[in-house]
Amino acid sequence: MGNACTKPVFVIHFGEIALKGNNRPDFETRLVGNIQKTLAGENYEKVLRTESRIVLYTNEKSDRVRIAEKLQKVFGIEWFAEAHETNADIDDIKNAAWELRDNIKGTLKVDTTRSDKRFPMKSMEVNRIVGEVFHESGKYKIDVKTPETVIGIEILNKSALIYFNKIRGVGGLPVGCTGKVVCLLSGGIDSPVAAWMMMKRGCVVEFIHAYAQPDIAELKKSKMMQLVSELKEYNCGNSMKLHAVPYSAFYGASFSMPHKKELVLFRRFLLKVANRIAAQSGTGGALGIVTGDNLAQVASQTLENLHATDEASELPVYRPVIGFDKKEIIEMAKRIGTYDLSIQEYKDCCSLVAAKHPSTKMKLEEAKKIEKECGMEKIVEETMEKIEEIKI
Ligand code: ATP
Ligand code: MG
After folding, report:
1. Burial, 6: exposed, middle or buried (Cβ in 10 Å; 0-12, 13-18, 19+)?
2. Ligand number, closest to the Cα atom of 353
3. Do residues 164 and 149 touch, judged by C-beta distance below 8 A?
4. What is the Å distance from ligand 2's center to 160 Cα?
5. Whose CA is nearest to atom 31 of ligand 1?
């Protein structure tokens, strides 16, 4: 066998983006930009968009393990692989595959795709020719049904890529390509997952958290910062914004509210504040509010109470985890990396608000009546003046 000259690369595939028709170039450009931002500070040569995939060229200084870890948190990536680039030439492909044989464990199969149909051989033929190299050596066994190693080969216009191990990405759409939302973030399990799901659909997410700590310095020492940091890992190196909403004004007024009704009134208060923050936030504002509500998980989340809550919002309220079982949300939280923080003890406003047996059937008219009596608009105004932005 001759020598093949190969370059170390990552090949990156983006499933869903390919379906987006006219928007496709925008999506691809954004994904490339997001990959570059995610890898800021890493050693690599360049990121190239080519023939419906992205090729990331690394070098001998690159920390390929860390790069792989980072790519696993970039939305829009369906799967990727550490690959080796050689010429689009059958002899070079054969030689390169053979030289990389240390990557093969057990039985193998060759799986070729051609992006450039001008390549003189069909994929099956390439599979056969490369497979033969291994078969004829007498050291390897081909098994096309249940191989232990798959040698992936992608033949492009001017190059060919060879890899052994596909790594699943997080999927979704590149952050930033669908718009901005604000997310009501508690210290619990559900709302961080809800935020993550909207980021996955390409949203820029700003957080709103109502805090019960005596001052902002205390909040800054709390786990809320770490929770946001964990979600920031998926934000392509961009910082994230947390609007810190003091709970004091609402709390003061809450004593004059029927105790059992407080929870829905608190939710409505949060939505009113969130709508104002959304309207103020940057060009065009945020176009939706995200919560971690889940149907019937807790008393505030009955259909009646959600109905009475929603009316307080002009913007649509998105609840991406509404239909999951708690177990499923927990699994996701673990996968995302927020679970351990979410279960850490935290003095959330809800624990101060929540009556032992809150009303499960709040009537909208009743909520509005109480709000009028306690001067809710003023409470919101007062709160708005004390909101601070934390950059994380
Ligand atoms: P989570 O696990 O997100 O806390 P949960 O199922 O425990 O949700 P609640 O605590 O009743 O339900 O809260 C419902 C939703 O209200 C949360 O998912 C969140 O979106 C919002 N929320 C609750 N508390 C706060 C808070 N202190 N600041 C901002 N939003 C909050
Ligand atoms: Mg909670």
Report:
1. buried
2. 1
3. yes
4. 51
5. 186
Sequence-distant (≥ 6) Cβ neighbours of residue 267 within 8 angstroms: 300, 305, 309, 312
Most informative mutation of 182, 191, 242 for ligand 1 (most atoms within 8 A of CB): 191
Residue nearest to atom 24 of ligand 1 (CA): 186
* Contact partners, residue 81, CB within 8 Å, separation at least 6: 10, 11, 152, 163, 164, 165, 166, 167
Q: Which ligand is nearest to the CA of 354?
A: 1
Q: Which residues line ligand 1 (CB under 6 A)?
A: 184-186, 188-191, 208-210, 270, 291-294, 297-298, 300, 348-350
Q: How far is the CA of 350 from the centre of ligand 2 (A)?
A: 7
How are beta strands 159-168 and 79-87 bridged, if at all?
A: antiparallel
C-beta of residue 206 within 8 angstroms of C-beta of residue 180? yes
Residues around ligand 2, an ion, CB closer than 5 A: 186, 188
Q: What's the 261 CA to ligand 2 centre distance in angstroms?
A: 17
CA of 186 to the centre of ligand 2 (A): 6
CA of 293 relative to ligand 1 center, distance in Å: 7
pLDDT in tens, the chain (392 residues): 656 678 999 999 997 655 556 667 778 899 999 999 999 999 999 999 998 899 999 999 999 999 999 999 999 999 999 999 999 999 999 999 999 999 999 999 999 999 878 888 999 999 999 999 999 999 999 999 999 999 999 999 999 999 998 999 999 999 999 899 999 999 999 999 999 999 999 999 999 999 999 899 999 999 999 999 999 999 999 999 999 999 999 998 888 888 888 889 999 999 999 999 999 876 678 999 999 999 987 776 889 899 999 999 999 999 999 999 999 999 999 999 999 999 998 987 766 666 667 788 888 999 999 999 999 999 999 999 999 999 99
Residues ≥6 apart with Cβ < 8 Å to 30: 76, 174, 176, 177
Amino acid identity for residue 61 in this structure? K
pTM of the complete model beyond 0.90: yes
